[in-house]
Amino acid sequence: MKTPVRVKPSALAGTVLVAVAGLFVMTGSALAQQIDLGGIGQMSGSTVGTIIQMFGLITVLSVAPGLLIMVTSFTRFIIAFSILRAGIGLQSTPANLILISLSLFMTFYVMAPTFDRAWNEGVQPLMDNRIEQAEAMGKIADPFRTFMLENVRDKDFDLFADLARERGQTVSREEVDLRILVPAFMISEIRRGFEIGFLIVLPFLVIDLIVATITMAMGMMMLPPTVVSLPFKLLFFVLIDGWNLLVGSLVRSFS
């Protein structure tokens, strides 16, 4: 009897693509089973069945990055880092690629328990043929639903719940539809990102005001205050160990 092949959950990149995509879209093989092609698509090794499975796989891979943004902590990280760069006054440093990469790996760090649970309860049993695809999709979605429920604002959740009730839908927080939870969670993350961004920008604004007042008093009307304040803002951020404080605060801000 062959021992089932097991993949370690530490392979986070593959886990994210499989687990997050499983929230909303079905795999290519499930799609092939649902489409009635008069038996052609069900034939073992048939060209049509293979094409449909490849189409489903490509669809999953194409929407996975968007789903990663929707149901994880990525939004809060990228907003905070982008506002930080704007607050300091830097146009393209750090580069977008650096900010996105840092946000991505911080997302992996924060979401690691969620990814591991989705892998162990949904993906791994599906690979071992211990559960069906429909059951696996539900088990993959549950950890992400729990994470979003723990971090969504009650006011945002109530907004979309009320909108759903106006359409005659029954809404339960314990078994909430992802179509209600995901937009509520995204609005909450954007709001929290702006709140953190305000706290980040405030000290830099004070430095800008002080420098602008001094340059005006010295009669240097033609010298842009932002040019003078930039090195002071960079020095201030380095002296307080800003990256350490910011990343630590962002990670601790999640339930």
Automatic annotation (TrEMBL):
GO terms for cellular component: bacterial-type flagellum basal body; plasma membrane. It is found in: Cell membrane; Bacterial flagellum basal body. Signal peptide: none annotated. Keywords: Bacterial flagellum, Bacterial flagellum biogenesis, Bacterial flagellum protein export, Cell membrane, Cell projection, Cilium, Flagellum, Membrane, Protein transport, Transmembrane, Transmembrane helix, Transport. The chain crosses the membrane at residues 42-60, 196-222, 234-254. GO terms for biological process: bacterial-type flagellum organization; protein secretion. InterPro entries: FliP, T3SS_IM_P. It is a multi-pass membrane protein. Its main location: membrane. PANTHER family: FLAGELLAR BIOSYNTHETIC PROTEIN FLIP (PTHR30587). Belongs to the FliP/MopC/SpaP family. Plays a role in the flagellum-specific transport system. This is Flagellar biosynthetic protein FliP. It comes from Aquamicrobium lusatiense.
